[in-house]
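Write out the 3D structure for:
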Amino acid sequence: MRFTSAALAVAATVSGANAASKGFNYGAFFGNNQAKVYDDFKYEFEAAQQLPGTNGQFNSARLYTMIQFGTTNTIISAIQAAIDTKTELLLGIWASAGQDVVTNEITALKAAAAQYGTAFSDLVVGISVGSEDLYRITPTAIGNGETNPGAQPSELVNYVNQVRSAIAGTSLANAPIGHVDTWTAYDNSSNAAVVEALDWIGVDAYPFWEVAHGNSIGVANATFYDALQTTKNASKGKPVWVTETGWPVSGPTQGEAVASAENAGIYWEDVTCSLLSQGVNLWYYTLQDVQYSTPSPSFGLKPGGDIKNVDPLYSLSCPDLTPPFVAPYLIVPIDSSDPSKIIGNAYTGQLSPTRSTLFALDIPPTPGKTCNLVFMLPTPFDPQYPSPYTLSSPGGIVVSRLSGPNTATTSAATTPESTIVGDVPRVIPGNKFLLENAPCAAGQQVGYRVDSIGGLDLNFFQVSGPAAVGLFMEVSD
């Protein structure tokens, strides 16, 4: 694996690392303009969760719209499919078609919250208002034949404010709102007002298209991380999520960039695996794009045919990334000094005399396995790089199993009853601590509470990979 220390340093500092989202982008229709329906979305979501070599990690879906294709403002059927497959959602509001369309998008968003309630909102990791709208108004986009009108910065800020007002008082009230655009859009200071209005920043970065910067597969890793760092520099300290990236498996050459399955596999290993190892929120482009069409270039990691049964065009395994472990899908701090306070899915563990953290995990459905609950804290990181954890005061932890899984809206006052399963009198960096050894609750969602004892004050990003940080469930025979 071709990781560079600079690349890992950038990835480690990306806000929103931790219990990271891992998924794909899903359009509302196929290449022949046929609308995707419930069965299509459900089948695609299931196929993503069954990808070989990924340990079932790709269970998040980024949508571009809330509207079922071909209707005015009917809720997109992907919502019900996500609920039924327990697929996390990064929602999208299409913003490159004017106010009337945005109004319809908001109508569908509010209708989904009203119809599905917390079964829907608990899956929502964020709402993206727009996708590459700022890029579309640039001379580069227009010169490349872009036909969508895009949106001006002031328009996008207005749309963001409309969405905030619309979700207030609904089950989506705590959903963070962001925007997705190219790294060049964020590097343009005239778009700073958009960044200011957001909770998180979504970046689309494709080294394949960077003809002006040198774009061979050999420099793709460096080119990608340059774009990511540029975005982070413009983010005003807000979390940066990678909402699109990928390398085409076929199509015409662009500069020094050759589209091929072999190069796409190299890109997956160099860029995707490095992002996954550091827990960066990532929606890859794309799972499959050749159903009912022949796009050129094609970015789908699966060829045409039955999406569940055709093999990927390249290996999706990542070194040191696919051991039999389960990472939390929900990490929710609670505050005993303010029991009714809802902190929400913070993606960070917060442990102190007044702060505890709740973790929710999906246990694999295979019966007859043994589950070891472990807490991992690596040795201190090189001080020249930001560390994923801060140990302000020594102490230990006590871990309890909840009578039911927590949700993103659980507070100290509403935390389920729990039973202690293990403790660590003193958490010392550089160790893995075994907390519980028991038969796996196959196919179930389980919740745990971690409390500070002995004065421990520890904040950490949940990070998978060789230098793992946080609470994990190891699964063995």
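The mean pLDDT is 90.
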